[in-house]
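Lab manual, section 2.4: Encoding a predicted structure.

Procedure: take the sequence of the chain (301 residues), apply the prediction step described in section 2.3, and record the output as C-alpha coordinates. A sample record is shown.
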Amino acid sequence: MAALICGSLAFDTIMNFEGRFAEQILPDQLHILNVAFLVPTLRRDFGGCAGNIAYSLKLLGGDPLILAALGNDGAPYLKRLDDLGISRQGVREVGDDYTALAMIMTDRDNNQITAFHPGAMGQAHLNTIESAWAGPAGVRLAIISPDGRQAMIEHADQLVAAGIPFVFDPGQGLPMFDGPELSKFIEQATWVTVNDYEGKMLCDRTGLSPADISRQVQGLIITLGSQGAEIWVEGQKTWVPPVVAEQVVDPTGCGDSWRGALLFGLERGWDLVRCAELGNRVASLKIAQRGPQNYQLNFQP
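Recorded output:
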Protein backbone atom coordinates (compact mmCIF):
# COMPACT_ATOMS: atom_id res chain seq x y z
CA MET A 1 0.00 0.00 0.00
CA ALA A 2 1.43 3.37 -1.02
CA ALA A 3 1.46 6.40 1.27
CA LEU A 4 0.96 9.82 -0.31
CA ILE A 5 3.18 12.52 1.17
CA CYS A 6 1.99 16.06 0.46
CA GLY A 7 4.58 18.65 1.43
CA SER A 8 7.75 20.49 0.52
CA LEU A 9 10.96 19.53 -1.23
CA ALA A 10 13.76 21.92 -0.32
CA PHE A 11 17.48 22.44 -0.22
CA ASP A 12 18.74 22.89 3.34
CA THR A 13 21.72 25.00 4.35
CA ILE A 14 22.54 23.88 7.89
CA MET A 15 24.83 25.85 10.20
CA ASN A 16 25.97 25.19 13.75
CA PHE A 17 26.47 27.96 16.30
CA GLU A 18 28.69 26.75 19.14
CA GLY A 19 27.15 29.07 21.73
CA ARG A 20 23.61 29.59 23.01
CA PHE A 21 21.13 31.93 21.34
CA ALA A 22 19.85 32.93 24.78
CA GLU A 23 23.27 34.31 25.69
CA GLN A 24 23.42 36.51 22.58
CA ILE A 25 19.89 37.96 22.52
CA LEU A 26 19.02 40.63 25.09
CA PRO A 27 15.29 40.37 25.94
CA ASP A 28 15.02 44.09 26.76
CA GLN A 29 16.52 45.05 23.39
CA LEU A 30 14.30 42.99 21.08
CA HIS A 31 12.86 46.17 19.56
CA ILE A 32 16.29 46.91 18.05
CA LEU A 33 17.50 43.36 17.53
CA ASN A 34 20.76 43.27 15.57
CA VAL A 35 22.86 40.16 16.15
CA ALA A 36 25.28 38.01 14.18
CA PHE A 37 26.26 34.42 14.94
CA LEU A 38 29.60 32.93 13.94
CA VAL A 39 28.92 29.50 12.40
CA PRO A 40 32.16 27.58 11.90
CA THR A 41 30.41 24.59 10.28
CA LEU A 42 28.09 24.67 7.28
CA ARG A 43 26.63 21.94 5.08
CA ARG A 44 24.07 21.69 2.31
CA ASP A 45 21.58 18.85 2.23
CA PHE A 46 18.44 17.62 0.54
CA GLY A 47 15.47 18.47 2.74
CA GLY A 48 11.89 19.61 2.86
CA CYS A 49 9.26 17.82 4.94
CA ALA A 50 7.99 15.63 2.09
CA GLY A 51 11.49 14.58 1.08
CA ASN A 52 12.52 13.85 4.67
CA ILE A 53 9.38 11.86 5.47
CA ALA A 54 9.69 9.91 2.23
CA TYR A 55 13.33 9.09 3.01
CA SER A 56 12.38 7.71 6.43
CA LEU A 57 9.45 5.70 5.08
CA LYS A 58 11.52 4.25 2.22
CA LEU A 59 14.34 3.33 4.59
CA LEU A 60 11.87 1.38 6.72
CA GLY A 61 10.56 -0.51 3.69
CA GLY A 62 7.46 1.56 2.90
CA ASP A 63 6.27 2.89 -0.44
CA PRO A 64 6.24 6.72 -0.44
CA LEU A 65 4.60 8.81 -3.17
CA ILE A 66 5.52 12.50 -3.05
CA LEU A 67 3.21 15.33 -4.10
CA ALA A 68 5.38 18.45 -4.26
CA ALA A 69 6.96 21.14 -6.45
CA LEU A 70 10.59 21.78 -7.42
CA GLY A 71 12.06 24.85 -9.11
CA ASN A 72 14.29 25.27 -12.15
CA ASP A 73 17.30 24.24 -10.04
CA GLY A 74 15.67 20.98 -8.92
CA ALA A 75 17.52 18.49 -11.18
CA PRO A 76 19.83 17.27 -8.38
CA TYR A 77 16.79 16.50 -6.21
CA LEU A 78 15.12 14.55 -9.01
CA LYS A 79 18.28 12.47 -9.36
CA ARG A 80 18.28 11.99 -5.60
CA LEU A 81 14.75 10.58 -5.71
CA ASP A 82 15.71 8.29 -8.59
CA ASP A 83 18.74 7.04 -6.66
CA LEU A 84 16.58 6.31 -3.63
CA GLY A 85 13.97 4.51 -5.70
CA ILE A 86 11.26 7.02 -4.74
CA SER A 87 8.70 7.85 -7.43
CA ARG A 88 8.83 11.40 -8.76
CA GLN A 89 5.56 11.04 -10.66
CA GLY A 90 3.85 13.57 -8.40
CA VAL A 91 6.68 16.13 -8.44
CA ARG A 92 5.91 19.26 -10.47
CA GLU A 93 8.81 21.17 -12.00
CA VAL A 94 8.29 24.95 -11.94
CA GLY A 95 10.43 26.66 -14.55
CA ASP A 96 10.15 30.26 -13.38
CA ASP A 97 11.15 29.91 -9.73
CA TYR A 98 13.75 28.37 -7.45
CA THR A 99 13.31 25.28 -5.30
CA ALA A 100 12.35 26.07 -1.71
CA LEU A 101 15.37 26.90 0.46
CA ALA A 102 15.75 26.55 4.22
CA MET A 103 18.63 28.17 6.11
CA ILE A 104 18.81 26.53 9.53
CA MET A 105 21.05 27.56 12.42
CA THR A 106 21.32 25.33 15.49
CA ASP A 107 22.86 26.31 18.82
CA ARG A 108 24.52 24.05 21.39
CA ASP A 109 21.17 23.39 23.12
CA ASN A 110 19.61 22.28 19.80
CA ASN A 111 17.48 25.41 19.56
CA GLN A 112 17.02 26.42 15.94
CA ILE A 113 16.48 29.63 13.97
CA THR A 114 15.26 29.05 10.42
CA ALA A 115 14.82 31.32 7.42
CA PHE A 116 12.69 29.74 4.71
CA HIS A 117 12.16 30.84 1.11
CA PRO A 118 9.15 28.95 -0.35
CA GLY A 119 9.99 29.41 -4.04
CA ALA A 120 8.29 26.77 -6.18
CA MET A 121 6.39 25.51 -3.15
CA GLY A 122 4.02 28.42 -3.69
CA GLN A 123 2.69 26.61 -6.78
CA ALA A 124 2.31 23.19 -5.14
CA HIS A 125 -1.49 23.54 -5.20
CA LEU A 126 -1.40 23.19 -9.02
CA ASN A 127 -0.33 19.60 -8.53
CA THR A 128 -3.41 17.59 -7.57
CA ILE A 129 -3.95 14.00 -6.58
CA GLU A 130 -5.96 13.40 -9.74
CA SER A 131 -3.42 15.02 -12.09
CA ALA A 132 -0.49 13.23 -10.50
CA TRP A 133 -1.88 9.71 -10.55
CA ALA A 134 -5.06 9.88 -12.64
CA GLY A 135 -6.95 8.94 -9.51
CA PRO A 136 -6.06 7.70 -6.04
CA ALA A 137 -5.81 4.00 -6.97
CA GLY A 138 -3.17 2.34 -4.83
CA VAL A 139 -3.05 5.21 -2.31
CA ARG A 140 -4.67 4.18 0.97
CA LEU A 141 -3.05 6.64 3.35
CA ALA A 142 -1.69 10.19 3.19
CA ILE A 143 -0.09 12.97 5.19
CA ILE A 144 -0.55 16.73 4.83
CA SER A 145 2.78 18.16 5.96
CA PRO A 146 4.02 21.79 5.72
CA ASP A 147 3.61 23.11 2.17
CA GLY A 148 2.17 26.13 0.40
CA ARG A 149 -0.91 27.42 2.23
CA GLN A 150 -3.28 26.84 -0.70
CA ALA A 151 -1.77 23.43 -1.39
CA MET A 152 -2.44 22.26 2.17
CA ILE A 153 -6.06 23.41 1.98
CA GLU A 154 -6.78 21.97 -1.47
CA HIS A 155 -4.96 18.67 -0.91
CA ALA A 156 -6.91 18.08 2.31
CA ASP A 157 -10.17 18.68 0.42
CA GLN A 158 -9.07 16.33 -2.37
CA LEU A 159 -8.18 13.56 0.09
CA VAL A 160 -11.57 13.85 1.75
CA ALA A 161 -13.30 13.72 -1.64
CA ALA A 162 -11.25 10.63 -2.56
CA GLY A 163 -12.03 8.94 0.76
CA ILE A 164 -8.34 8.63 1.70
CA PRO A 165 -7.55 8.86 5.45
CA PHE A 166 -4.76 11.27 6.24
CA VAL A 167 -2.49 12.59 8.96
CA PHE A 168 -2.62 16.36 9.50
CA ASP A 169 0.93 17.50 10.28
CA PRO A 170 0.91 21.33 10.17
CA GLY A 171 4.45 21.74 11.53
CA GLN A 172 6.00 25.12 10.89
CA GLY A 173 3.15 25.89 8.51
CA LEU A 174 0.70 26.11 11.42
CA PRO A 175 0.96 29.93 11.85
CA MET A 176 -0.43 30.39 8.31
CA PHE A 177 -3.89 29.29 9.50
CA ASP A 178 -6.42 30.79 11.89
CA GLY A 179 -8.57 28.90 14.38
CA PRO A 180 -11.50 28.04 12.09
CA GLU A 181 -9.15 26.84 9.34
CA LEU A 182 -7.25 24.62 11.76
CA SER A 183 -10.51 23.29 13.17
CA LYS A 184 -11.57 22.30 9.66
CA PHE A 185 -8.30 20.42 9.10
CA ILE A 186 -8.93 18.53 12.34
CA GLU A 187 -12.47 17.67 11.24
CA GLN A 188 -11.14 16.36 7.91
CA ALA A 189 -8.16 14.43 9.27
CA THR A 190 -8.02 10.91 10.64
CA TRP A 191 -4.94 11.61 12.78
CA VAL A 192 -3.19 14.80 13.92
CA THR A 193 0.51 15.06 14.81
CA VAL A 194 2.37 18.05 16.23
CA ASN A 195 5.35 18.70 18.46
CA ASP A 196 4.77 20.15 21.92
CA TYR A 197 5.19 23.79 20.84
CA GLU A 198 2.91 23.33 17.84
CA GLY A 199 0.43 21.49 20.04
CA LYS A 200 0.12 24.48 22.36
CA MET A 201 -0.37 26.81 19.38
CA LEU A 202 -2.96 24.48 17.86
CA CYS A 203 -4.90 24.41 21.11
CA ASP A 204 -4.67 28.18 21.58
CA ARG A 205 -5.93 28.94 18.07
CA THR A 206 -8.76 26.41 18.03
CA GLY A 207 -9.81 26.70 21.67
CA LEU A 208 -9.60 22.90 21.90
CA SER A 209 -7.66 20.87 24.45
CA PRO A 210 -5.59 17.83 23.44
CA ALA A 211 -8.36 15.65 24.83
CA ASP A 212 -10.93 17.54 22.73
CA ILE A 213 -8.90 17.12 19.55
CA SER A 214 -8.35 13.42 20.21
CA ARG A 215 -12.12 12.87 20.39
CA GLN A 216 -12.54 14.26 16.86
CA VAL A 217 -9.90 12.01 15.26
CA GLN A 218 -8.58 8.49 15.70
CA GLY A 219 -5.56 9.84 17.52
CA LEU A 220 -3.55 12.95 18.40
CA ILE A 221 0.22 12.49 18.59
CA ILE A 222 2.38 15.08 20.35
CA THR A 223 6.12 14.51 19.97
CA LEU A 224 8.24 15.75 22.86
CA GLY A 225 11.77 15.48 21.46
CA SER A 226 14.08 13.89 24.01
CA GLN A 227 11.10 13.34 26.32
CA GLY A 228 9.34 10.85 24.03
CA ALA A 229 5.78 11.30 22.82
CA GLU A 230 2.20 11.58 24.01
CA ILE A 231 -0.57 9.57 22.36
CA TRP A 232 -4.09 10.88 22.89
CA VAL A 233 -7.01 8.59 21.98
CA GLU A 234 -10.61 9.33 22.98
CA GLY A 235 -9.47 11.86 25.57
CA GLN A 236 -6.96 9.53 27.23
CA LYS A 237 -3.20 10.18 27.23
CA THR A 238 -0.47 7.55 26.99
CA TRP A 239 3.18 8.53 27.36
CA VAL A 240 5.67 6.68 25.16
CA PRO A 241 9.22 6.92 26.57
CA PRO A 242 12.09 8.11 24.37
CA VAL A 243 14.94 6.10 22.94
CA VAL A 244 18.19 7.64 24.10
CA ALA A 245 20.45 8.57 21.19
CA GLU A 246 24.08 7.45 21.16
CA GLN A 247 25.00 11.06 20.49
CA VAL A 248 23.18 14.31 19.79
CA VAL A 249 24.59 15.91 16.63
CA ASP A 250 21.82 17.61 14.61
CA PRO A 251 18.06 17.73 15.28
CA THR A 252 17.21 18.87 11.74
CA GLY A 253 14.64 16.48 10.28
CA CYS A 254 14.05 14.47 13.47
CA GLY A 255 10.34 15.20 13.43
CA ASP A 256 10.10 14.17 9.78
CA SER A 257 11.95 10.90 10.42
CA TRP A 258 9.45 10.25 13.22
CA ARG A 259 6.53 10.87 10.86
CA GLY A 260 7.94 8.47 8.28
CA ALA A 261 7.86 5.81 11.00
CA LEU A 262 4.30 6.81 11.87
CA LEU A 263 3.19 6.27 8.27
CA PHE A 264 5.03 2.93 8.16
CA GLY A 265 3.13 1.73 11.21
CA LEU A 266 -0.24 3.07 10.07
CA GLU A 267 0.22 1.33 6.70
CA ARG A 268 0.48 -1.93 8.62
CA GLY A 269 -2.45 -1.34 10.95
CA TRP A 270 -0.35 -0.82 14.08
CA ASP A 271 -1.79 0.99 17.09
CA LEU A 272 -0.41 4.47 17.75
CA VAL A 273 1.70 3.45 20.72
CA ARG A 274 3.60 0.93 18.60
CA CYS A 275 3.97 3.56 15.86
CA ALA A 276 5.38 6.01 18.42
CA GLU A 277 7.87 3.48 19.72
CA LEU A 278 9.21 3.05 16.20
CA GLY A 279 9.20 6.81 15.65
CA ASN A 280 11.26 7.40 18.79
CA ARG A 281 13.73 4.75 17.69
CA VAL A 282 14.19 6.17 14.19
CA ALA A 283 14.49 9.75 15.47
CA SER A 284 17.24 8.66 17.88
CA LEU A 285 19.25 7.45 14.89
CA LYS A 286 18.59 10.60 12.87
CA ILE A 287 19.69 13.01 15.59
CA ALA A 288 23.08 11.26 15.72
CA GLN A 289 23.79 12.21 12.08
CA ARG A 290 24.12 15.58 10.38
CA GLY A 291 21.45 16.52 7.85
CA PRO A 292 17.90 15.22 7.53
CA GLN A 293 18.54 12.39 5.05
CA ASN A 294 21.92 10.90 5.94
CA TYR A 295 21.12 8.32 8.62
CA GLN A 296 20.72 4.57 8.21
CA LEU A 297 18.85 1.93 10.19
CA ASN A 298 20.66 -0.51 12.46
CA PHE A 299 17.58 -2.68 13.01
CA GLN A 300 14.73 -4.35 11.13
CA PRO A 301 11.33 -2.74 11.82
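Check your result against the sample. The chain is about 35% helix and 25% strand.
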